[in-house]
Amino acid sequence: MAKSQILFMVILTVFLVTMNEFGRRVGNRQRTSEAAGDDTTGLVIGSVLGLLAFVLAFNLSAATSRNADRLASAMGEANAIGTAWLQAKAIGGADGEAVASALGDYLGARQIFAGSRRHDPAIDEADARTNELQTVIWDHVSTIVAERKDPAAASLMNAVNNTFDATTEMRFAMGFIMPPQLVWLLLGMNLVGMGAVGYKFGLAGRSNRLVAVSLSILWCVVTTEIIDLGSGRIWSFRTDVRTYIWALESIGQKPTDLPG
């Protein structure tokens, strides 16, 4: 299920429909004219559905926030690399050009890292390439700083350091997955809510299986999208890498064509 969004949605829908049917049968067994019109039962079911709505809204807000963090981290990293590249070109010389060239390759590796799907081997390759280039870049920057004591050299060192910090931040943002506690809470509330709806149908003596299936599919889609949006790249959702593409184009390099 961690690798297949469709499989997760199918299994969740089956569980929701099954829970609705179970609740309906329990309601049928307890159905009386008094129970069907009991305000207490309606109040409890309404409270359960209200709590479900709150849990959905809370998780959607958290997922949206995490997505905004990833976008901000991507923009921050691309901008930091671009700034370091400009300063390296301004420094000039053999070491300055070497730093600029390595930063161009570095930017390409970061685009692949940010835009690849989960479990794609390209992610590990991009990470390995990132670590390798960081060593190369810092060796040249160290040489520049040792030979030059002017503000330009110090500024380049700070820019490169900011680039590495931005990369660490991006790695953390992309590695984030919704906490299991929140996921289980979301799934549990969906099941309880669907069971409550089925129980109410049973008390009223109504089947409404088409309504139950439709509602199950709707809740399943919303839940799946929340989990997908809140995690770095667990399923189909991917972080926008246009900032890396623009940065690569601005320094005259061709972006990598990532698979759709």
TrEMBL record:
The keyword Transmembrane applies. The lineage of its organism: Bacteria, Pseudomonadati, Pseudomonadota, Alphaproteobacteria, Rhodobacterales. It comes from the Bacteria. This is DUF4239 domain-containing protein. Keywords: Membrane, Transmembrane, Transmembrane helix. The chain crosses the membrane at residues 41-60, 182-204, 210-229.
